[in-house]
Amino acid sequence: MASRLLGLTGSISTGKSTVSKMLVAHGAALLDADQIAREVVAKGQPALLELAARFPGVVGPDGTLDRARLGERIFSDPIERQALNAITHPRIQAEVFSRTEALIKKGVPVIVYDAPLLIENRLHEAMEGVILVTAPEAVQRQRLTSRDGLTDEQARARIASQLPQEEKKKFATWIIDNGGTLAHTQLEVDRLWETLRSAP
């Protein structure tokens, strides 16, 4: 079976990490966009020097990125967000390409690229299929308030800042409903894996 590169995405607090862990347990290789993004802006990396120049004050005394401060700068400002993306995205994509090539050479059958902005950044166009993780908005808000300590108003703002789930569904090959029990999600992932295994 040839290697297949699939995108995994979902809105905030829909539970992508839960689904990705289940897929890895089945034998998929995971490329985590958030983890790779952290690595390309690690201490000493060229991207961090560019961020320090473009966003004064976001690098702490210890030479590492102050994510909270950077987040404050970009969250409500599309221009600042674009500037950040222009610095980090090309490096992230180059790293993803390199790691994907290595996994293909090793003969890994299913490679899952977990990226929150897979569809927004049109990365889904390079995938053989898209797995979308969904959950009702009430569940998203509950997770954000209990896990991240956000107020309900803050949770609503975070959710509203993203592409609506209904829009994302238009690009999905498979949809995993992660709004219920863990057992229900596991069943859906098991079914998806069987579908992937039986594909030519």
Give the C-level CATH assignment of the largest domain. Alpha Beta
Name the poorly predicted regions.
Answer: none
Fraction of residues in H or I helices: 40-55%
Query: What overall geometry do the principal axes of the alpha carbons give?
Result: globular
* SS field, number of helical segments: 9
SSE sequence, one letter per element: EHEHHHHEEHHHEH
How would you describe the overall organization of this protein?
By secondary structure, this protein is an alpha/beta fold. It has two domains: 1-27 and 109-200, P-loop containing nucleotide triphosphate hydrolases (Rossmann fold), CATH 3.40.50.300; 42-108, no CATH class. Helix content is 54%, strand content 13%. It is built from nine helices and five strands, in the order E-H-E-H-H-H-H-E-E-H-H-H-E-H. It has helices spanning 16-26, 33-40, 46-54, 67-74, 78-106, 137-147, 152-160, 165-169, 182-198, and strands at residues 4-10, 29-32, 110-114, 129-134, 174-177. It has a five-stranded parallel β-sheet, with helices on both faces. The relative contact order is 0.21.
Short descriptors:
9 helices; five-stranded parallel sheet; globular; 200 residues
Short account of what is shown:
By secondary structure, the protein is an alpha/beta fold. The chain is built from 9 helices and 5 strands; from the N terminus they run βαβααααββαααβα.
